[in-house]
Specification:
The chain has a single domain (3-394), classed as Cytochrome P450 (Cytochrome p450), CATH 1.10.630. 48% of the residues lie in helices and 10% in strands. The chain has helices at residues 3-7, 13-26, 43-49, 79-91, 93-96, 100-115, 123-128, 130-140, 147-161, 172-175, 177-191, 202-208, 218-231, 234-249, 251-259, 264-275, 306-309, 345-362; strands at 29-31, 38-40, 58-59, 121-122, 210-211, 214-215, 281-284, 289-291, 294-296, 301-304, 363-368, 389-394. The strands form 4 sheets. Strands 1-2-10-7-3 form a 5-stranded mixed beta sheet. A 3-stranded antiparallel beta sheet has the order 4-12-11. A hairpin with a 6-residue loop joins strand 1 (29-31) and strand 2 (38-40). Helix 6 (100-115) packs parallel to helix 18 and helix 16 packs across helix 18.
Length: 395
């Protein structure tokens, strides 16, 4: 298997990271195949591309569908900024703070359940899978009882999306029709009510805020909800899994952070860097530009290698290791950078803060059932544990 195949290997992330390392050293702006997309491997190249939103503002396939079917990550400017303002009002810091009491209660209930068992438990399926998916449900106005079903649909969407190419008009609803039908039904339920009866939640905000002088259509609202319900669950869950694995692998580290909770934000930042839950972003170049000294032509597909950038040896010593004492824990680009930085970055950190404080309060220690690397998700797009069996010591 060659370097290009390893770079997008589905089942073995160590191959992906080794291929990224090779590219950073010898070909940081690399073409996959003779006429394939470009892969940006170095932090310099990634940091150069991310602020160029006029050049790399739309996802692959986004320009090939009606604007109402373009999810936020694929919408070009200036429409992107207008929809983004609505999303900021749904999940930005001032709004996301309100979800804390709900999350605290959820985490206590989930840990109550696992603490009642004598046997080890899968920390992903029993705990961390629930946290971000339930939070985004609460913020958008969804029943949190549906959170895990929505998360499973998200995994299916991401898996099928890897087959998308320029010219492919597939949407999230096309990839997983049951998911699309579910969200469409919920939007229809809301529209069947008198507007005066609509609750103050994310769905209502999408339905009532004007973009370009008019409200989003029900189809556009459905599209953004499909995206947000997915984007708000997978990446945060994966980062927290990587952090829990690091803490469970090192009892001294667990005790250090448990004893000094002011270290938790730093630990979260290091987990974001190491995990880079979204391993890369796929963008189409909208106008000719240069990245890392290389010319990129209009129409080209570009893989912006966030995971590779976050393990760049020119920025971090021993980058494949979890290190709580790195001098600048916020240097990573796990959330992207520039005007299109992830609008949910505050929410992700809040979710981790609540989840790990609950874990520290409940368990004096945790350890892996099977020491060593975790079983990773079988996708090149995301990186996190598929499962994480642990044992605990009660506080």
């Amino acid at each position: 298997m060659g370097l290009d195949e390893d770079l997008l290997h589905r089942d073995e992330p160590h191959r992906r990271f080794a291929a990224m390392r090779q590219l950073r050293q010898r070909d940081p702006v690399h073409r996959l195949g003779s006429e394939g997309p470009l892969y940006l491997a170095s932090r310099e190249a990634v940091a150069d591309a991310l602020p160029q939103i006029e050049c790399f503002g739309g996802g692959v396939g986004a320009a090939d569908v009606h604007p109402d079917l373009q999810a936020l990550n694929g919408v070009a400017e200036p429409r992107h900024g207008r929809i983004r303002r609505i999303v900021n009002g749904m999940i930005g810091a001032h709004k996301a703070t309100a979800v804390r009491p709900f999350l605290e209660d959820l985490c206590q209930r989930r840990l109550d359940e696992v603490a009642g068992r004598a046997a080890p438990f899968d920390a992903m399926a029993a705990f961390l899978d629930y946290v971000p998916s339930s939070a985004i449900c609460w913020l958008t106005g969804w029943d949190a009882e549906d959170a895990i079903r929505l998360y499973r649909w998200t995994v299916e969407v991401c898996d099928k999306a890897m087959a998308m190419k320029p010219g492919n008009s597939g949407t999230i609803a096309d990839l997983v029709p049951a998911y699309g039908d579910y969200v469409e039904g919920r939007v229809a339920e809301r529209l069947s009510l008198a507007p005066s009866d609509w609750p103050e939640d994310g769905m209502t905000r999408l339905l009532t805020t004007e973009v370009e002088g008019e409200r989003l259509s029900p189809t556009a609202v459905k599209t953004q909800l499909l995206f947000l319900l997915g984007a708000g669950s997978e990446t945060s869950r994966d980062m927290m899994g990587v952090l829990l694995h690091a803490l469970a692998s090192d009892p001294d580290l667990y005790q250090r952070v448990r004893a000094d909770r002011t270290l938790l934000p730093r630990a979260v930042q290091e987990a974001l860097r190491l995990a880079s839950p979204t391993q890369f972003m796929v963008r189409r170049c909208e106008q000719e530009t240069t990245v890392g000294g290389h010319e990129v032509c209009s129409g080209e597909t570009v893989y912006i290698g966030l995971a590779s950038a976050n393990r760049d040896e020119s920025c971090w010593s021993v980058p494949d290791r979890f290190d709580l004492d790195r001098p600048d824990p916020t240097l990573h680009v796990a959330f992207g950078a520039g005007p299109h930085v992830c609008p949910g970055s505050f929410l992700v950190r809040l979710e981790a803060e609540v989840a790990f404080n609950a874990l520290f309060d409940r368990f004096a220690g945790v350890e892996l059932v099977s020491p060593g690397p975790f079983e990773a998700l079988a996708t090149p797009m995301f990186y996190g544990p598929a499962s994480l069996p642990i044992r605990y010591v009660r506080a």
